[in-house]
Amino acid sequence: MGGSIIGFGEDLVDWDGQDSSAQEEKIFVAVRVRPLNERELGKNDVSDWECINSTTIVFKNSLAERSLVPTAHTFDRVFGTEASTGQVYEEAAKKIALSVLSGMNSTIFAYGQTSSGKTYTMTGITEYTVADIYDYIHKHSEREFVLKFSAMEIYNEAVRDLLWPDGGPLRLLDDPERGTVVDKLTEVTLRDFDHLRELLSVCEAQRQIGETTLNEMSSRSHQILRLTVDSEAREYLGRDNSSVLTATVNFVDLAGSERASQTLSAGTRLKEGCHINRSLLTLGTVIRKLSKGRNGHIPYRDSKLTRILQNSLGGNARTAIICTMSPAHSHVEQSRNTLLFASCAKQVSTNAQVNLVMSEKALVKQLQRELARLENELRNLRSASASSSSSALKEKELLIEKMSKEIRELKHQRDLAQSRVENMLRAGENPASKSWVDMSNHEKGSWGDEYPTSDASEMTDPLRSDAVSRGSHLSDRYEGVISSRIEDNFPENNEEQFLSSDTSPRLYIDKYFGPDPCKGWEKMAEETSKNFEDNCKDVQCIEIDFTKRNVVSSEPSSEKGDDHVSGQSPCLSDNNSPGPGANVERCNSCSAILTTVTKSPSSDEAKEFENTLENEADNQEKLSDPEPVSNNENLYTEETQPSVEADLMNKGDCLDKQQEAPLEEHKEVIETEPDPEPEPEPEPEPEQEPEPEPVKLVEYDLDMKKEREPDDAKQTTDGGSDKTQDTEQSASDWQTEFQRQKKEIIELWDACHTPLVHRTYFFLLFKGDPSDAVYLEVELRRLQFLKNTLHGGAVLKDDQSFKQAASVKALNREREMLSKRMLKKYSVKEREALFEKWGIDIKSKQRRVQLCRQLWTDPTDMDHINESATIVAKLVGFKEPGQAPKEMFGLSFSPRPADVKSFSWRHSLHSMM
Ligand SMILES: Nc1ncnc2c1ncn2[C@@H]1O[C@H](COP(=O)(O)OP(=O)(O)OP(=O)(O)O)[C@@H](O)[C@H]1O
């Protein structure tokens, strides 16, 4: 034997290096010319045909006839009169017949006119094949083989069991998986070769034979001998991962076509001849139609012969047809018909594949492996994207560290200032204490009169000096405001109480101005810092170019605050080129936070703040306004720290909203937002800026948080700064994008021939939760890569995912495997309902396969997709739609990012592309 079976065990099996997956190949067609028989020789008949080489037969008669018909015919193999049956077997039948050992169905036909040598040839081929099979079995003890034999004949359109001839005609049934099945056909498990020989003898004896003028022993029926070979590696016997190769080889000895005039038949023979000719005519029609590319209806069902042999006629069995013919001139017409049939058969393709029957557990394991592979792919993609942005993350961490340091510094300075104030008040040694005293004396405005703002620089108090050095007199104003408030409300003669050692002005501030807005600020600031850190980590993939641009272009300042910005932001770079627009939002947020913390207040802002304080009703709200703060303006800082915190918190809240807002919106805002920096002429002139200044980006964020100036009121209203609205908008953006991405993924699945179980798994996993964004992205990226790979991109031929994705055949196999599970997973009623729903005739053949072939075929129809996913989920055993089958497959997806809610899918998608 020339071939060998390799890869036993779990792997598929090859024969002679054939691919184990389904393969399309043409029917192998050979022609055998028998010698002139005695009758023909007795009539001095001459031989019209000659095989001039191993593939060509030529007609060698008169010139007149030669001009009308083709004289040379080429086939896969032609055998002249001298060829032995052994040779015919070796060169035309063996390879295909023995495919049965590698799990492929096969069929060997003999076709030809009566008395041309069909039975003579097929008997030999059957015996040679069986001998080789047993020879193989003996040489391969590592596998356990089970051979089963059955035999039937179709006589006058009735199917007879040759191993149980008295059983009466057999019915044909349509089985969705196996095709046409002969009901109740006897199948005998063979003990050994001798057992088979005995059975062959029985068949021979049982077959309908009659004497005709042309053949004393003419077969009056089509005979089909069927040998099924199951094999399983002994090593895996009874184990979970065992799988069985199972295939059938058919030996078909057709009845011979005949002419009543030639056979001089009448009565029974004539009737037989009619049936024979009719079924052969159908066979010829089937072959002719198949040879033309299966256009139109293939009349398999017109005869029992073609119904039974449907799998061999353009189906899933490797097929060889040996056409026998007489060379006699008297049969030239029949011979030409035979060659015409052979020529058509040559064009017909079959699609054989290895029939590997897996155990349930093996099937689950295979699916498990597939899912594990996908999980691994996801992980790799994720880590690849993470590492690509690790430098950005580092910068963010540095920034966070610096911010924390700054906060600590601010806290320290605030505490220091506060204690100084209190000490001074207690000691009554500075103007502040005087103010309190004055207040108690009801000297309205005395503070402001005695210590006008312009004179503040003359004071020696370090706090004031510090404030003055910053160019701001807010502390004066602030205290003045406090004094006037207390003047109005403080009870008379309360000085003693007020100045008592255990009483702090803060108590009064609390009492008359509401609770300390700074209370708990440190904690909140720390938390905010932490949140910010998390957010930055979450968006580690954001691009930093744009942010860099912001900072570089920020208003130059010698102030410490600006140093903070330039020293700690990841945006620090001299790279002025704007980054991708999609990253603007996040960067805005980050830089805005920084700027809010570090920016010095302007005198205008101080005034505004003062006005704010004067408005008691709005006190709390105003204190929370995100006014810029100087880290050195202690009092001011103290009172405005909540602004920083509120701003930070607002940033956090609106982070996603900003990220998901369309870029255009941002551009527009960037270009139209007024510059809040103090200007002598504060008229904003955005059009004067040819390019949006980075500082404006920062300002945009600030302004998003604070109330607009009165003249900006309209803008504020129109700007839709309402947080709820933004949140809703953000949610709706996400949903829209989610649906779009899901649709794209579904289409890519289809284009990449992704396994249905995989599709279903992910489809059910994605429920529209923003926390699934990362999975959605990774899957999308994976598919886009695969699609590029499949459609002309850089192709890694040996890449496993490429092979898997590219395999339509694998997908077909998966469909078939799924169809097998329908019996288990659906009741008869449920199946019937499904067939009806999916437009499949409940009596049609292979209806379960038909249904599974329809699953996931229309990526544009979401109802179809939903139903497909539901069915696959049920077949595979997902407990319920939406429940990821991790338990079943023993999978544990990597934990999701801790804060995926703030993960910007849009940003990461852009950054990954
Ligand atoms: N290649 C051959 N060499 C020698 N004898 C042959 C050859 N082919 C056929 N014969 C003989 O021709 C006769 C008819 O052969 P066979 O019965 O196989 O024909 P058939 O095609 O099966 O006919 P039918 O269709 O009528 O059953 C037999 O006696 C057989 O031995």
UniProtKB/TrEMBL annotation:
- Places the protein is found: Cytoplasm, Cytoskeleton, Phragmoplast; Nucleus
A GO BP term here is: cell plate assembly
List the biased-composition ranges (Basic and acidic residues).
661-670, 706-726
Top-rank taxon of the source lineage equals Eukaryota
Q: Which InterPro entries match?
A: Kinesin-like_fam, Kinesin_motor_CS, Kinesin_motor_dom, Kinesin_motor_dom_sf, NACK_C, P-loop_NTPase
Q: What are the start and end residues of every segment in region (Disordered)?
A: 428-472, 551-582, 597-639, 661-694, 706-736
Composition bias of kind Acidic residues appears in 671-692
The UniProt similarity line reads:
Belongs to the TRAFAC class myosin-kinesin ATPase superfamily. Kinesin family. KIN-7 subfamily.
This chain belongs to which protein, by name?
A: Kinesin-like protein
Species assigned in the record? Sesamum indicum (Oriental sesame)
Gene that produces this protein: LOC105166078
